[in-house]
Fold:
Amino acid sequence: MGKITYSQVKANEEINLYIAKGNEMLAAIGYTDHSKAHAAKVAETAGMILRQLNYSEEEIELAMIAGYMHDIGNCVNRNDHAHNGALLARQLLKEMGMEPEDIVKVISAIGQHDERTGTAVDVISAALILADKTDVRRNRVQNKVKATFDIHDRVNYAAVSSNLIVDTEKKVIRLEMELDEEICSIMDYFEIFLGRMTMCKRAAEVLGMRFKFTANGSKVC
Structure:
């Protein structure tokens, strides 16, 4: 048993196979990208959040590991993917030699990351939730036929840019987004992502911060 690093997790062939298969299954049913690119972005954003807030290197590393592995449950089924992913992660991390006290922090964060069943319960799950729910960008759309876009496709495709800012002076974590309103209105965005934004609000509070969201320069929440 010992300390397992984010680099080791990112290089693990079995973990990457689960991520790839999960994304393949989601693409087949019309979901947005959940590939290694999404996994790495979530991991790095979760690490950035905790680093900006001066959390320990151990907590940063665990948040990045949870971020990279959070969607592996999609290889089983989209439904209940958070809980399936947590159980898969437990076995994988145990086989890699991670300490039990670290495993439980990672699998708790993974198990809490879906807005239908979870919420932030500690700093690792909070960082993961904020990183995951704010990864909205055009190149996550896997459907190549615009005429068949559903509202999730439109929202992501309309996201010209997005930036997550940790303002330690004002104690605010702010998502700044530029939306192409000819593709998707701000109201459309909120119709889909209200639950996620509420989850982000709770996650920010766990970190002693407030969550703010601006779209096209206007404060939304």
Q: What stands out?
A: The longest helix spans residues 186-206. The domain at 6-219 is CATH 1.10.3210.10 (Hypothetical protein af1432). The mean pLDDT is 92. The two ends are 44 Å apart (CA to CA).
